Task: structure prediction
Amino acid sequence: MIAYTTCNGPSSMFTGLDGRFMRRDVATTAVNMTYSYPTYDILMVLGDSNTQFANDPAKNGFVAQLAEFYQRQMDVLNRGFRGYNTSSAREIIGSVLPKTSVAQDSTTADDISPLFKFAKKLKLTTRADEITKALWPYQKQNYPGISNILQLIIILFGTNDSRVEWSEAYNPIDQYAEDLQYFITLLQDPDSEHYSPDARIMIITPPVVGDRKIQELAKSRNTEPEWYNNRTQTYAAKAIEVAQAANVAYVDLHTGMEDVVAEYRKNISSTDVLDGYDNYLIDGIHLNVNGSAILFGLIHDTIAKNWPEMIPLKS
Result:
């Protein structure tokens, strides 16, 4: 919905809430107008700051990499919330996940879509849902306007949940597991208003924690560390346990990073067992360019293994 306010500018102009000047004589058509924008199918990434910051191409963010990987095939939505754990995310999840709508078998795709026109020429069908089925998987470059189905949701929490008990963001591990299962149920339960039967689900464990860097930062701030790698590791194991019980895909990012760090240590002379984490983390908890590359690689491999039809055919 679009709303506007008046301003002290020229009498023939008014200002929208977005700050743009518009002619006053179009106000009657703009107020209360809603818009439906053609989209591709959806890939959503839900998580904490490691997701929120992952749109940054300068950091080789894994969400930015997914957007490039699926360009003209899926719209990649970043739903990362800095500082959130699974319980705080649960409070807003109703405003994040798509709402289930009744299938409209007689609905035709909008002529705005070039793909629809192409499909009509081939006499595939005039029904949007059948066109979608006929042309899926979208392994080749596509056009928006045919469908906006949630095809894949990636869920990455645990870094904040696993903080020490005195931290405001701490979330007990059993509650963490219950929240993850709740998100899965919202998508898989036919009675849920967020039921998404086509959605593939991928759970990602929290990444490693660089204990030495966290200790250094805490000392500089005259406080105690809030993160420890061994704590986060237990939450990573719990995330895998939830995913396996629910029979959904998962990425063991924690172990994947530990393996890479261990290999990295073989090539350095220091005997400090904590050496190596700084090569993959910015500040002990957030992925840097190298850490993001690890995560994107693991996501890619998991998609290829579980849903090979979702690997684009690059021209």
User: Anything to note?
Assistant: Strands lie at 4-5, 13-16, 21-23, 41-47, 74-80, 150-156, 200-204, 249-251. Residues 229-246 form the longest helix (18 residues). The two ends are 39 Å apart (CA to CA). Residues 262 and 276 are 8 Å apart (CA to CA).
